[in-house]
Design a protein that fits this description.
The chain is 76% helix and 0% strand. The chain is mostly helical. Helix 1 runs antiparallel to helix 2. The N and C termini lie far apart (40 Å).
């Protein structure tokens, strides 16, 4: 696994842990940082990672609109 892929995997794992957490509202600043960092690697994402990244973007937009 390349260094870039390793870094992306770490970030995506953090994003997934946040999504699965019941205390999401507390970490809004952190998730925005992870999403920004993951966005840098979109060219290196698998289709699955890219779909999940887009899902989390949608989720954040929905939470902000409530």
């Amino acid at each position: 696994m390349s260094r870039t892929q390793q870094k992306l995997t770490e970030i995506m794992d953090s994003i997934q842990a946040w999504v699965e957490s019941t205390e999401r509202e507390r970490d809004c600043v952190q998730i925005e940082e992870w999403m920004r960092r993951a966005g840098i690697y979109t060219a290196h994402m698998t289709d699955e990672d890219r779909d999940y990244y887009q899902y989390v973007q949608w989720l954040l937009e929905e939470e902000q609109s409530e």
